[in-house]
RNA sequence: GCCGGGGUGGUGAAACUGGUAGACACAAAGGACUUAAAAUCCUUCGGUCGCAAGAUCAUGGCGGUUCGAUUCCGCCCCCCGGCACCA
């Protein structure tokens, strides 16, 4: 009876009754559960996707059955390169390709019984959505947080566009895995670095986020406390100084040379006109050709050359040579570093190679004045200052503070904070994205497109291939050539489009008010629905999307457009589905499609199996061996209810206090099951053990044999009916179709989802009889069954007569008896 | 290298604050029903010894704390994820 016909029947009824539509401003408490919306890639849904949406669906239905006003929307992150590539390959418009894919995916989501409020569906490539993405861009521009600059940017030679640092993973493009190159280009940036501190500090507020994700964000932001110190250049008529940044000012007396990035303007300037000029130029040129990854990999051998200059250590006046090296990068700190080979591994490696002196200034606590020649590696741990003038004898951890103060007082340096986080590069040289709404005018400069002219619609183009670092839009004359909105003179439209992460940085807000033509969203609706109570998605977005979404939220909070500054209260990152040890994905060709399984077993079995196989946060290696187990389980429930239907059709309510002993134990088993299922779901979504508890209960029902006189008693019949109903209610979020169906067979006219989950009766969750393990010296020697609350004396008496216990104690001296009421008895003997 | 998370039967996994290790399933074996098969129902199912009662070993390895450790502590091995010349 479990079948696709059944799936279809209920899916249609749910849709027709608008059962899962969220109600703005309902008096019920709201609950916003959101899945990271997908890119409509057109691949048939595979089990990896399904797991994700099934988890969200269970949460959504469960919350609904707890009486919440649930918002569970779905949309499409529909701008992006695959659509464009498909367009180039198959000569189909990206929009058309995207729409088709959305249709397919939507149908599939419905087929596994996911209940979204489809009336709120949004598509980021639709003008009524990207109009507001553009509007948000203008807000950033207005506040000075969007700016243009020329910078060496990450360039993907395959996608033919630039990308943000966050999109470069292990030196390759996160999407196409091509090695990323560097290209000097003028680009649009969002000043996310203005929010570095808040993005970092507010991680504390994210109590409902996995520790792992928070740590990843923290590392990405990469805040460090240090000192910037000025080293004067010896014999420099212009009074040049090299500024270095260090987090280890305590090692300043150990500086034996300075290292500077070869592209540092000062390096070039100091070498000018000397015999070092030419080699330095060559060295810099060589590094420029090298990709960022091979340059900054710590496997790359350290290389460098003396540039002919000496610098003076501001602490002790020592004269040290300046080297241009490959291991210092211009983008971080000041682009120059003081080298302390004794206490920094990189400097140590370099010093060994070029025979530079090593001077120990931090002594290991357990080692008296170890000579530098002895060091086989840098000593980077804590210790005591030596060879450090007036700071000798101090703990280095204390010296850091003292020496920072000293530097500030003597005006040779200042305390500085550095971040690894860089500004977000948001322009892309591609067609299928939201056009950046600005116009260039020779007279007025960069002019924002007036709000009334939004959206700047993507024009229809024939050739989607980007050319020479510019978007295909640049070839559309009608698009590019527009009058300047300010002076009316000749203007040129920006042809870059926005990074798609912009569209996904605020979509959760649009779901609260998806049809608004006058604003991105209405503040009152936002106040009602936001923040998202439960966000669910893949760990792969731990930095990219989640950091950007937090940034947008804080920006909108500052504009007073929203009333909270963190978007997601709870975050759940589900484990990926693997096949042959690899993430399931279309490009790898290792997908297991959901469709055939749904055809064979129905949606409920597929859902149940995915949930039962492992806890949801854990990654699972796909194997459909176990699917029969869920199929049988659902069959057992159906048969049980069908078979007992004559007995329970008109059964009355259970009156717990009047139950005879045997049935009371039955009732307690039911209550314990309710408690366990709800606890497991509410404690980190452990659906697997919740389902196992229900299986156990069903097994109990099959095994239970009432006595002759109870068989047809009204108490027994009431208990059977209650059990059947509670099983269905508890199981409904997991396997909704069969539960609806059986609920109906029990005689209910309304959807099961309009009912509350059962509550357990706290007076009936403790079994009256307990099996207690009996140990001798912690080793299990037997078990006794006692009624709850049996006294210590009686329990010991009962346990003490067990032959195994007598044998184990015989001839030994009893030292102690451990007794835990109703739980454990343990004799300690010598 | 650093930071996270793991390592439990043939398999997926349970064991929530230290208290009966392996719940619940899959696979396997046997049985019942059936002309037969499927479906269903019942039984067995970590290793070794034993007819059995039971004994003994067993949660990556070695130690420690404890009456008692999958759980706490120390050291080590392996796997997965993240970060990584960031000064």
N- and C-termini, Cα separation? 63 Å
Average pLDDT, rounded to a whole number, is 91
- Tally of helical runs: 26
Largest β sheet strand count, sense and barrel closure: 7 strands, mixed
Helix proportion: 25-40%
Instruction: Bin the strand percentage.
Output: 15-25%
Structural class call reads alpha+beta
Poorly predicted spans? none
Number of strands: 34
How would you sum up the global shape? Answer: flat
Whole-number radius of gyration?
Answer: 34 Å
Describe the structure.
By secondary structure, the protein is of the alpha+beta class. The strands form ten sheets. Strands 10, 11, 12, 13, 14, 15 and 18 form a seven-stranded mixed sheet that branches. The chain has a four-stranded parallel sheet with strand order 2-1-26-27, with helices on one face. The radius of gyration is 34 Å and the shape is flat.
Features:
single chain, 830 residues, alpha+beta, 7-stranded mixed beta sheet, 4-stranded parallel beta sheet, RNA-binding
């Amino acid at each position: 009876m479990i079948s696709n016909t059944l799936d279809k029947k209920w899916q249609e009824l749910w849709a027709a009754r608008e059962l899962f539509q969220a109600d703005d401003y309902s008096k019920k408490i709201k609950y916003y559960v959101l899945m990271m919306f997908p890119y409509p890639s057109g691949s048939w849904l595979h089990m990896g996707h399904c797991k994700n949406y099934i988890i969200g669906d269970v949460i959504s239905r469960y919350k609904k059955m707890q009486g919440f006003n649930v918002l569970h929307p779905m949309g499409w992150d529909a701008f992006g390169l695959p659509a464009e590539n498909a367009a180039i390959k198959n000569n189909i418009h990206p929009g058309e390709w995207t729409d088709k894919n959305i249709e397919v995916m939507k149908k599939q989501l419905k087929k596994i019984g996911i209940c979204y409020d489809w009336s709120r569906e949004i598509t980021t490539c639709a003008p009524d959505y990207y109009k507001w993405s553009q509007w948000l861009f203008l807000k950033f521009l207005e506040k000075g947080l969007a700016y243009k600059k020329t910078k060496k940017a990450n360039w993907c030679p395959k996608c033919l566009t630039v990308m943000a640092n966050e999109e470069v993973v292990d030196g390759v493009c996160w999407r196409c895995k091509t090695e990323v190159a560097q290209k000097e280009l003028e680009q649009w940036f969002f000043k996310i670095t203005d929010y570095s501190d808040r993005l970092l500090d507010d991680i504390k507020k994210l109590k409902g986020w996995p520790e792992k994700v928070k740590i990843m964000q923290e590392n990405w932001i990469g805040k460090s406390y240090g000192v910037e110190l000025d080293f004067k250049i010896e014999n420099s008529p212009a009074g040049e100084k090299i500024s270095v940044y260090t987090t280890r000012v305590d090692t300043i007396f150990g500086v034996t040379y300075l290292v500077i990035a070869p592209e540092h303007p000062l390096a070039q300037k100091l070498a000018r006109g000397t015999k070092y000029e030419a080699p330095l130029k060559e060295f810099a040129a060589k590094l420029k050709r090298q990709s960022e990854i091979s340059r900054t990999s710590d496997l790359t051998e350290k290389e460098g050359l003396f540039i002919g200059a000496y610098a003076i250590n501001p602490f002790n006046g020592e004269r040290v040579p300046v080297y241009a090296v490959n291991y210092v990068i211009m983008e971080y700190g000041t682009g120059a570093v003081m080298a302390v080979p004794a206490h920094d591994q990189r400097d140590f490696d370099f010093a060994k190679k070029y025979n530079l002196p090593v001077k120990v200034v931090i002594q290991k606590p357990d080692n008296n004045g170890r000579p530098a020649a002895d060091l086989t590696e840098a000593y980077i741990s804590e210790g005591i200052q030596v060879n450090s003038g007036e700071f000798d004898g101090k703990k280095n951890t204390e010296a850091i503070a003292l020496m920072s103060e000293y530097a500030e007082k003597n005006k040779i340096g200042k305390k500085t904070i550095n971040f690894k986080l860089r500004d977000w590069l948001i322009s892309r040289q591609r067609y299928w994205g939201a056009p950046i709404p600005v116009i260039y005018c020779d007279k007025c400069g960069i002019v924002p497109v007036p709000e009334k002219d939004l959206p700047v619609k993507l024009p229809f183009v024939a050739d989607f291939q980007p050319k020479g670092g510019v978007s295909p839009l640049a070839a559309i004359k009608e698009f590019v050539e527009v009058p300047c909105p300010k002076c009316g003179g000749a203007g040129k439209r920006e042809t870059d489009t926005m990074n798609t992460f912009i569209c996904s940085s605020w979509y959760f807000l649009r779901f609260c008010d998806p049809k608004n033509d006058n604003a991105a969203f209405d503040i009152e609706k936002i106040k009602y629905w936001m923040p998202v109570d439960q966000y669910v998605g893949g760990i792969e977005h731990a930095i990219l999307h989640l950091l950007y979404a937090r940034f947008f939220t804080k920006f909108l909070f500052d504009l007073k457009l929203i009333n909270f500054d963190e978007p997601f209260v709870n975050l759940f990152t589900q484990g990926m589905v693997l096949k042959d040890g690899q993430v399931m994905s279309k490009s790898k060709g290792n997908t297991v499609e959901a469709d055939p399984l749904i055809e064979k077993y129905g949606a409920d079995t597929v859902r149940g199996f995915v949930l039962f196989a492992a806890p949801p946060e854990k990654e699972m290696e796909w194997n459909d061996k176990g699917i029969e187990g869920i199929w049988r389980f659902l069959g057992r429930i159906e048969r049980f209810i069908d078979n007992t239907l004559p007995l329970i059709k008109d059964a009355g309510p259970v009156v717990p206090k009047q139950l005879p002993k045997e049935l009371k134990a039955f009732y307690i088993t039911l209550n314990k099951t309710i408690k366990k299922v709800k606890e497991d779901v509410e404690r980190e979504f452990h659906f697997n053990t919740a389902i196992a508890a229900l299986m156990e209960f069903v097994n109990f029902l099959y095994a239970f044999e009432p006595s002759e006189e109870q068989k047809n008693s009204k108490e027994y019949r009431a208990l059977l009916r209650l059990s059947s109903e509670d099983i269905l209610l508890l199981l409904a979020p997991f396997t909704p179709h069969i539960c609806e169906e059986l609920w109906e067979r029990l005689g209910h006219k309304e959807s099961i989802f309009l009912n509350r989950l059962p509550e357990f009766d706290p007076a009936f969750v403790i079994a009256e009889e307990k099996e207690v393990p009996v140990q001798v010296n912690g080793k299990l020697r037997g078990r006794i069954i006692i009624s709850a609350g049996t006294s210590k004396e009686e329990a010991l008496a009962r346990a003490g007569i067990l032959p195994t216990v007598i044998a184990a104690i015989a001839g030994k001296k009893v030292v102690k008896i451990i007794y835990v009421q109703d739980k454990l008895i343990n004799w300690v003997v010598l």
